[in-house]
Amino acid sequence: MNPVEKLFQRTTQGVKPGLDVITALLEAQGNPHQKLAVIHVAGTNGKGSVCAMLESVLRASGFKTGLYTSPHLIDFSERFRINGEPIPEEKLNGCITLMEEKADEMEQATGVRGATFFEVSTAIAYQYFADEAVDIAIIETGMGGRWDATNVVIPLVSVITHIDIDHTNFLGDTIEAIAAEKAGIIKLGRPAVSSPQSEAVLAELRKPGVRIIGSTEAVSVVKIGDPQKLKIETHSRNLPAVNLPLLGECQRENCAVAVAALEVLADMLDFEPAFKKGLESVAWGARFQTLQTDPLIILDGAHNPSAGRALAKTLRELYPKHQVGFILGFLEDKEAVEFLRAIKPLAAKAWTIPIDVPRGTTAEHVAIQCGVAGIEAVPSDVSGAWKSSRDWATAEPNRLVVITGSLYLKQELERKSM
């Protein structure tokens, strides 16, 4: 068993919110997180895209960047990047072995519970970035914020992307409860930048002594050409036209959040952000990603109702005359029926597939959920759905296929060499 496989055994412990274990684990390593300048990002949707934009612009501006995100699409090493490159295998294995040993020693010596998979992973990220002396670390929360293992830092700036209903079994079943958890990354005396939010969410984000900067108040992002040519203006600059590789209205919103946060950083650190170079070179997989063009097949990791609505809006914007066939797969803890209702008006055809991870569901179960949402779907395996959907898409013009429901679908396609 290699170190990564050994670490993944900790996933059986599930999610255990709290900061005591991660704090003790980092203290045993000399508190590497305290050596880092951090941008901390939380939210329901768009976290990864915003992190990718922040990292790309900062790297283009001359900073040595660290980027910690989850989940990974193909390989675990993707979660830990420096200057856009995943951690080397040998270095990763060494970090895992060290942190596992520290976690086990701590558990035996103090009697605290065993560290979870995400706690060990987060400790690895902070240690790796400190060892390599990155200039800025962009840190994405795993879930929530207040008790998320990443929330042991005092960031330069906190970023809150769009908040909606998700992870209700851990974060609460109301938008207010979820917002309160995510607001936990906002720190006294440090600025915070937020996507447009409902008044209920904003009420939870506002704290005494904290400046909340609304992205739409600070930045204007307007589409001026296809597929995503943008005019971007801030209070202090009018940027040349930017061709953003990430498509859809939701990515324009994410772009505004990233630009607003970068303007805050530019004032704090006195640098000129390379906005155009960074935004035009950003890459972030499984976000309305074109897998092939003939027939057109798109992969999108949308996995909750809000993201489902955003996906439907993007499809209407970019392909208003196309029939859409969906290949669908979900994890068991997702609000699949509400997601499916969001895309139902576009679903000319649908296939369901299993996701082969511990929380994955069967194709038959997803087909039942589709039925509840009013979508007729055919249960299949990955290979069968791929072939059937391609045949359907090539049978008539103006048809496309969208694979969606989970970021883990990228792994399923990779396993089948698709």
Automatic annotation (TrEMBL):
SUPFAM superfamilies: MurD-like peptide ligases, catalytic domain, MurD-like peptide ligases, peptide-binding domain. It is an enzyme of class 6 (ligase). Transmembrane segments: none annotated. Coiled coil: none annotated. Residues 41-261 form the Mur ligase central domain. It holds the Pfam family Mur_ligase_C. It catalyses: 10-formyltetrahydrofolyl-(gamma-L-Glu)(n) + L-glutamate + ATP = 10-formyltetrahydrofolyl-(gamma-L-Glu)(n+1) + ADP + phosphate + H(+); (6S)-5,6,7,8-tetrahydrofolyl-(gamma-L-Glu)(n) + L-glutamate + ATP = (6S)-5,6,7,8-tetrahydrofolyl-(gamma-L-Glu)(n+1) + ADP + phosphate + H(+); (6R)-5,10-methylenetetrahydrofolyl-(gamma-L-Glu)(n) + L-glutamate + ATP = (6R)-5,10-methylenetetrahydrofolyl-(gamma-L-Glu)(n+1) + ADP + phosphate + H(+); 7,8-dihydropteroate + L-glutamate + ATP = 7,8-dihydrofolate + ADP + phosphate + H(+). Functions in two distinct reactions of the de novo folate biosynthetic pathway. Catalyzes the addition of a glutamate residue to dihydropteroate (7,8-dihydropteroate or H2Pte) to form dihydrofolate (7,8-dihydrofolate monoglutamate or H2Pte-Glu). Also catalyzes successive additions of L-glutamate to tetrahydrofolate or 10-formyltetrahydrofolate or 5,10-methylenetetrahydrofolate, leading to folylpolyglutamate derivatives. This is Dihydrofolate synthase/folylpolyglutamate synthase. It comes from Pontiella sulfatireligans. The lineage of its organism: Bacteria, Pseudomonadati, Kiritimatiellota, Kiritimatiellia, Kiritimatiellales. The gene is fpgS.
